[in-house]
Specification:
Blueprint lengths: L11 H9 L37 H23 L5 H33 L22
Bound molecules: zinc ion (ZN).
The site of zinc ion (ZN) has 8 residues, from loops.
Keywords: Membrane, Transmembrane, Transmembrane helix
Protein name: DUF983 domain-containing protein
Length: 140
């Protein structure tokens, strides 16, 4: 597929969903990562250069935030309804939290890279679908 034949995402949500699926946010067809958290240098389908991405620790913050909010009601329920002791609580919550965070890191990094690409951060070129004539009421 040549870069001209790429079906760009129409919205940020569509680009983020492509990133969450660990596919290229620009074309949505090629994989985004060459290793678990290492993105490809360039997309093999559309040719976008992924080297400007700077996700840093943000995917980990997202994974911690989501895991904490999902597990908090479970911790409260286990402590109040089942009256589990600290050892039983630890043996349930810690493996579950680790599994959830590890499972969430790659999709979170895909979404962060998609956001950086969509908003043209760190040297990415902002690309949008061409507007259909007459679709914008503000312009004649
Ligand atoms: Zn691509």
């Amino acid at each position: 597929m040549s870069p001209a034949n790429v079906l760009l995402p129409a919205t940020f949500g569509q680009a983020a969903l492509r990133g969450i699926r660990c596919t290229c946010p620009r074309c949505g067809e090629a994989r985004l990562f060459r290793k678990w958290l290492k993105p490809l240098e360039t997309c093999p389908r559309c040719g976008v250069d992924w080297s400007p991405q700077r996700a840093d620790d943000f995917p980990a913050y997202i994974a911690i935030l989501v895991t904490g909010h999902l597990l908090a009601p479970l911790v409260i329920a286990l402590a109040t309804d089942f009256e589990l002791g600290p050892a039983a609580m630890f043996s349930i919550i810690v493996p579950l939290a680790v599994a959830m965070m590890l499972g969430m890191l790659q999709p979170a990094k895909g979404a962060v890279i998609a956001a950086q690409w969509w908003f043209g951060l760190h040297g990415f070129r902002r690309e949008r679908l061409p507007e259909a004539p007459g679709s914008n009421p503000d312009r004649p």
